[in-house]
Amino acid sequence: MSEITNEIKNEIKKRRTFAIISHPDAGKTTLTEKFLLYGGAINQAGSVKGKATAKHAVSDWMEIEKERGISVTSSVLQFNYDGFCINILDTPGHQDFSEDTYRTLMAADSAVMVIDASKGVEAQTRKLFKVCTMRHIPIFTFINKMDREAMDTFELLDDIENELGIATCPVNWPIGSGKEFRGVYDRNTKKVELFSDTQKGTTQGEVRKIDINDPEIDSLITEDQKNQLEEEIELQDGAGAEFDQELVSKGELSPVFFGSALTNFGVETFLQHFLAMTSSPLPRKSDDGIIDPMKEEDFSAFVFKIQANMNKAHRDRIAFMRICSGKFEAGMDVFHIQGGKKVRLSQPQQMMASERHMVSEAYGGDIIGVFDPGIFSIGDTLTTSAKRYAYEGIPTFAPEHFARVRQVDTMKRKQFIKGINQIAQEGAIQIFQEYNTGMEEIIVGVVGVLQFDVLKYRLENEYNVEIRMDSLPYEYIRWIANEEVDMDKLSGTSDMKKIKDLKGRPLLLFVNEWSVRMTQERNDGLILEEFGRS
Ligand code: G4P
């Protein structure tokens, strides 16, 4: 292996790639806009999703996606700040998200969780969070909307700890909330960053910091607020977890920040700490050992998302890949491991909100989308290395809705099978069969019910096949991790269903969690998993 060039090393060292997650309306878009504003990527923060008009454009885009039956876009935004090159992976904030949302997290090196200070942890955050913990990536918490009435600070921290099972370490502490919000106290520097409501809109505003022991503080916060702050800090110092970088890096301790994205308050402070507490792209596992971006000169990447039919006339697809090592140059030839041949990566692009633009070069840590003539699958590896290694696959995430699907016209069986297989290959749906029968009955599993509509629409429009869907009562799916299990002898609850995936691997479907537990208890040694390993 030849030496990695300094150019590549320096570029990768600058990279930070994180996913931003939140429950809809917690302020993810607003916070992202403000990050871009500090990075100077756009002049007006509103360009991501501005007021009325721009917002309208975004929802139109989603309508189109829905109509065409493609999954809701997650975009990748890139900006520079203080010598760093930062990639934000936006996860679709829909109530009805798809498996793509999970997969996006597989491409990130850390996650930023935005929480509405008046609401605490909400359902969607919980689900996404599981994936972050599975990957042991650092998780940062930004508690937003402090300019509105907020929940008690301890309650918010407890909520995160209890609901998500992760220890928290507040880096700063809020002084009041809503109309009484005065700013945040930095527990390390002992300075108060003063809130001023004049920072509204698109300007960055002046940040004023004052030492907590400076006499002027008494004219800025009330005596009650000061007393309360002192009490709370004392309590937190005594009972809360101490900051520990190692635990943060392993995803076991979440640094917490308070702010108000709308008024630009606390955003830059957050960004600065975030950059100091995260690392550049880390080594990743492959079937030929660990690939370290600081040592590996060759380009390598894996596909984590496939976006279908952006242009229906051409049936094109875009494969989004996370670059893990080396340098990408437009039009370069790479080896597609799973396909077993060389391919040219053409029309490379990055997504800027809902706009796409071409890229000529990119480095480890970056995300690019390339034209896919229908050859890539989720999890595929591409590399220029002669070693031909494959990155660890992306797990299959448990669908929560199931339906039996069949074509209305029996003569169209072939198109039906082709269509449903192609759509499954893109990762929008998962398909299964009855355990003991052939391909006759097809069971489709999806993470969000919207995907059922997508499937129906796409089969009708792209493959000219009308289908019938009968929903099934199952909500829980489990993969069987131990191969030696005899499926015929396995005894479960009466409502349990035995199925297999396309690779013939056995799975179980359950109506409720109780049945999962019962089956587990009745079969000694049975290992049931919520993620399907590839
Ligand atoms: P999302 O991407 O997580 O779904 O949330 P988004 O940023 O779109 O924010 C949801 C709403 O919350 C928006 O209001 C936004 O202006 C508001 N918001 C975001 N951050 C803050 C904050 O720090 N303080 C306050 N008070 N509000 C905040 P909207 O009325 O739905 O939209 P808009 O008309 O203001 O754009």
**Coarse structural class:** alpha+beta
Mean pLDDT: 85
How many helices? The count is 13
Name the assembly state: single chain
Radius of gyration: 25 Å
Low-confidence stretches: 42-74
Distance between the termini: 29 Å
Outline: globular
The percent range for strand residues is 25-35%
Give the beta-strand count: 33
The largest sheet is: 8 strands, antiparallel
Strand order within the widest beta sheet: 28-25-27-26-30-31-29-32
Q: Hetero groups bound?
A: guanosine-5',3'-tetraphosphate
Helix fraction, binned, reads 25-40%
How would you describe the overall organization of this protein?
- It is a single chain.
- With 534 residues, this protein is α+β, with helices and mostly antiparallel strands.
- Helices cover 27% and strands 30% of the residues.
- Strands 28-25-27-26-30-31-29-32 form an 8-stranded antiparallel β-sheet. A 7-stranded mixed β-sheet has the order 2-3-1-4-5-11-6, with helices on both faces. Strands 18-17-23-14-15-22 form a 6-stranded antiparallel β-sheet.
- A hairpin with a 2-residue loop joins strand 2 (76-81) and strand 3.
- Helix 4 (99-106) packs parallel to helix 5 and helix 11 (413-426) crosses helix 12 (450-462).
- The longest helix is centred in the first third of the chain and has 17 residues, at 52-68.
- Mean pLDDT is 85; it is low at 42-74.
- The protein binds guanosine-5',3'-tetraphosphate.
- Guanosine-5',3'-tetraphosphate (G4P) binds next to helix 2.
- Guanosine-5',3'-tetraphosphate binds next to helix 2.
